[in-house]
Amino acid sequence: xxxxxxxxxxxxxxxxxxxxxxxxPNEWKEFHQTWGEYNPDWQHIIWTDEDCLQFVYKHFPExxxxxxxxxxxxxxxxxxxxxxxxxxGGLYVDLDFECLRPVDDLVVNRSFVIGKEPRxxxxxxxxxxxxxxxxxxxxxxxxxxxxxxxxxxxMNPRSTSHREVLxxxxxxxxxxxxxxxSGKDICVLNAHILYPFASNKKEMCMLRNKKGDYLRLKKQxxxxxxxxxxxxxxxxxRTLAGQLINPDxxxxxxxxxYPGMDSRGYDISNMGRDISRLAVExxxxxxxxxxxTDGFLKYNIRPMCHWVEVENWGGNEGxxxxxxxxxxxxxxKKSVFRTVLGFLGR
Length: 346
Hints:
The protein is built from 15 helices and 15 strands.
C-alpha cells in the first residue's frame, strides 16, 4: 500500500509502540504512561508481535518474506516502525523512553523528525554522526521512509552479529540512508533534545537505578529543553547473544571476574555468551581489555566508580577483565572487595 504524502495535514497525533504482548514489563510501565500523561490528546497504540505480522501481511505483502526471514525479533521491531509510520504516520517511540514534556512543539509544521544519538555513540561505531530510530515522527507516505524500506529489501535479512543488526534495520542503516537522502525536509534534533546522556554515563546509571540526585537530573533536563530520556535498555542484544554458558566464573584463566557488574560502552563486537569462547576471542584480540557476559568484547574498561549493576543478575553474570591489565585500571580495592563479598553472600 502506498499512501500519499500529507504534509498539509501535519504529523498525525498517534503514538506507536511495540512489545511482544500487551503485558508491558514493569520496568517500562512508568515510561509508557508518561507519553499519555504529557500528550493526552494523542492516540496511543501498542502493537504486539502478532499485530505486526498481520500488519505486514495485509499492507506490505511484498515485504513479508523479508520480514519473516529476519534472524531476530529486534529486526522485525525495527522494520515495523518504518512501515507503520509510512502507512499511518504519527510518532514511534521505544518503550524504554520517558517523556518529559508535550511533543507538539517538536512536530508542528514538520514532516519528519528524528534525533542524533550522543557523540560518543557515533565514535564507538566509527561514525561522525549516529541517528537513532528510537524516536521518529512522520507524516504518512514520507519518501525518506520509502527509501528506508527499499534499502531493507536489498539487504540480507539473516544476521549473526550485533553490528549486522544495526546495519540491516537499526541506527547504522538509518544513518546511511539519511546521508544519501536528497530531500531537505528532515528535522534532525540535537542529542540533548531526546538523548541527553550516553548509555555509559554515570548520570544514566543514576537515572536507571533511581539513585543519588536523579530527580535533580530530570529537572535539569527539562530546564535544558529536553523532551525525553532514552534509557538504552538494549534488551535485544542479550537475546541475540544466546544462552549464557558460564559454569565457574572465577576459574577462567587469565581473567578477573566481577559478579553483577558491567562497564558500559566501548564495545568492539558481540561474540555470544559462551564464556570459554569469549575468553579465547578476547585473548586473541590485542585491543580487547575484557568482556561482559552479554557477549561484548571491550576495548576500554571504565573506572569502577562508573560501573553499573547488571539487572536481574543471577550470580554468573558480570564483567571479565584481563588480569595483566588490572594495574592499568583505576579500580577501587574496597569496592571490588564489597562486590565479591556481596556475590558470596547471595
